[in-house]
Every structure is written in structure tokens, then in C-alpha cells.
Amino acid sequence: METIHQPDKPYTKIPVTLLTGFLGAGKTTLLNRILKEEHGEKIAVIVNEFGQVGIDGELIVARDESMIELNNGCLCCTVRVDLIDTLTRLAKAKLGLEGEAKKDFDRVAIETTGLADPLPLIQTFLLDEVVATCYELDAIVTVVDGKHIEKQLSYLPLAAEQIALADILILNKCDLLSTEEKEKIRQRIKSLNHEAKILEAVQSDVPLGELFGKNSFQHLSEDFLHGDDHEHEHHLDGINSVVLRSTKPIEIDALYQWLGEVIEKCGPDLLRYKGIVYSTEWEEKRGVLQGVHTLYTVQPDRDWRPGEPRETKLVFIGRNLDEEWINEGFASLT
Hints:
Layout: E1 14-20, H1 27-36, E2 43-47, E3 60-63, E4 67-70, E5 75-78, H2 83-95, E6 107-111, H3 118-127, H4 129-134, E7 135-145, H5 149-155, H6 157-164, E8 168-172, H7 179-192, E9 197-200, H8 222-226, E10 239-246, H9 252-266, E11 270-277, E12 285-292, E13 295-303, E14 312-319, H10 323-331
Parallel strand pairs: 1-6, 1-7, 2-5, 2-6, 7-8, 8-9
Antiparallel strand pairs: 3-4, 4-5, 10-14, 11-12, 11-14, 12-13
Helix pairs in contact: 5-6
């Protein structure tokens, strides 16, 4: 396995945003904004091929066979052998290692094809040693075609999974929707993933600050943590979510055992699960659960704030999850 020898100075992991969404949703439009606008961010964007983003030659500062440097400080890279190879090369370029020309960038955005299942990509950042050492997932952003999503959900299970796995949802093409249509679609996608933040857009025009630097992959949104539970019992498109809460502290070993039982029962149908843990082991710190498919971590996070309710709140998202069985198992922990 390839390793990267880092300088002695402390290394800060490179944040990564995954951009998903079905064909025609508006991912390429969003990528063009990232690559061309003067937004003050130095972002390395990984795409499948240069041709699809149509970069204006006047914006190009330098280029080679797989990397283009733009005058707004961004980089556009194509996948060479595979994604891991490309990410390794970028990390070396940022550090100026092993003959790679040094490149200054702050974060990475990865465009997936409309037909790509984002789950294997997410697992890459958790399983591959080099990638996990150099990078951390900041957010999974799914662009939703507001005009056609209803039809897509009716016959494409992948479209529902892309929504279910997201931390941030961009409801695009809102100019083509009436107020009633837009609200109906908002409720439809919230029933698939009511924890994700929804941004409404025309031509994928959203503030980039809403997409980057929020650490959305690791943490639940404040709206979810402090809001009321609702509509998680719905089973639209085979995807449902189960929300669990308890104000009693949980023993970490018991939590590990129960999570193993959930993984064994649900198997590949378990997509995402995450939340805040109130534990007896970390008295003054809240724990954070982060899971994708069969991989998960539970780690101490920040201190509980003065007056902050100390409680466990978890969300599980998957295909046809047995809500009653999950609730009973969780209740046995407390």
C-alpha cells in the first residue's frame, strides 16, 4: 500500500465535498460556478473528463494531461487510474512531495456521475489508509432536479438513495415550479432525508459558503438536534429513517453491541446513521456516532455546553428498516 511521508509540521486533513445527483440535475452547472467565479476559495475539483465542464481557455493559467490550473486559484483534475490514485497525487502536490509540482488548494470537490452510487466513494474515505490519513469528508451534496425528481423517484431507486445519503440537498430548477409544486417536492425529499439541509436554487446558484466548511458529514444539523421528530415513519420509495432519543446515559460497550446487531440484521439496507451520544464514559463530553453501511465510529466530541440538554439523538436511514425492532433494541440500552 502506498504511503505519503509528511513533513514534521502538523498536518491538517484536506476537507472533501462529494457532489452527487441524477443526470441533468445541475451538477455540471454548479461545478462551472466553482471553477470560474471569483469566490475566494482555492478548490481542487475532480471530474471524469475536462470536456464536460467546458472550461474557457482564457481562465486557464497552466495545464498538463490531467490537471488544469485556473486564474481564480482553483484546480480542475480528471481521474487518471482511479480516484485513490488521483487523491494521492493531489495530496503529494499540496505537500510538494515526490516530484509533484506544489499546488496550493484548501479543499477538494468530487463530481460523481449521475448513475454512480455514492456509497462506495464514501467508504473509500473511511477504509483506504492513505485517503483517510490525508482527507476528511466535509459534506455529501446532492443536486435534485426539481422538475423531474418525482418521475425519477418512481422508477430509479438510485435517485432515492442519493437523496437519503446527502448532508445537503440543492433543490434545483425552482424557477420551473409553482409554489405548490415546490412545497410538495420539498416534503417528498424531506420524507427520504429530513435531517439534510435543503437549499433552493435556480441554475444551481447557491452560496458556496453553505456547501463548504460546515463539517456536515460528521455532525447532525442544529435544526435536527433541537427540532421535533416528524414523518420518520414514512416508507416512500423503499427508504425510511428512524429517529431515536433518550435523556438517560448509555454505556458505550452496550451501544457497540447493539450497533453490531443492527448491522447484522439490516446488512446492505443500512445506508447512513449518525447522531449525538450521551454516555457514562465521557461525562463532560458528548459523543458522536458516524456510520455508513457496516462501518462506524463513536468518538468523544466537544464539551457539553452550559444548559445544553444532555441526551442521545440518533438517526438511521436505509431501505425498509424495521422501526419497531430498532426502537426496542435502543430502549434496552437505556
